[in-house]
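Run folding on both entries below.
>entry_1
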Amino acid sequence: MNTGSDEPGEVAVSADGETGEKTDGTKDGQGLGSRAPEFVKSRRLLHLSWQVLIFVIGLAVVVAGIIMLPLPGPGWVVIFGGMAIWATEFVWAQLVLRWTKRKVTEAAQRALDPKVRRRNIILTAIGLVIVAAILGVYLWKFGFEMPWNIKNQ
């Protein structure tokens, strides 16, 4: 999995939390590393405790999202929310979120392509015609009876 940026000069990893610099000397504004307050980062034990707390909170949110996948609820949104919580502290989560954002943007651009939109509209129309035909056959055969109230066929 390529988690780097599309820009060739960008620094991929910064362990000390400084903002990344590109080879042309410009700051990218979204550096990698911890976003903890300075007083937390200055004390090793406090920073480690902060990271454990962020990991546990992010894990709880991700697990809640995974539980919501088969159940009602915004499962994927909650999972990405947990990843965003992790990304405030961990470089690997920041890289995964960058990769995910790039892929979502690419998919959105592909969906706006006129040929893809036309295909999606045609497939949706065909699906609606099939559902309407099945509903019509059901109503013709059984009327407005609910399936659990049908006695004899």
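>entry_2
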Amino acid sequence: MAQEKPGRDYSRIPDGAYSIVAQVRAKSGKESELRAATLPLVALVRGDPKNLVYFLQEDRSTPGHFIFYEVFANKEDFEAHNAMPYVKAWLARLPELSEGGVTVMRMEVLNENR
């Protein structure tokens, strides 16, 4: 297990956890619509007991460019997350709102003992 630091519950993150760094860019003129469609994901994903960490970020210099950081214990938990109706509904909106959909990097969380 990850070493716990003051003020943070890193112990919840198992060695080798399945992490996602993803990005999506709004079509020109669709920045506000994509933001409005994406913001509800924060509460929904953080409410999923299988989700360990979730951050939605927007580039300060490029409105409508969103970066997601998500951590799950394993790939199966991430795939179950992607099967949720709210994720499928959000993905279905991307052709109208985004340039090229979502780009995803599948990562492994490393700790000092790896």
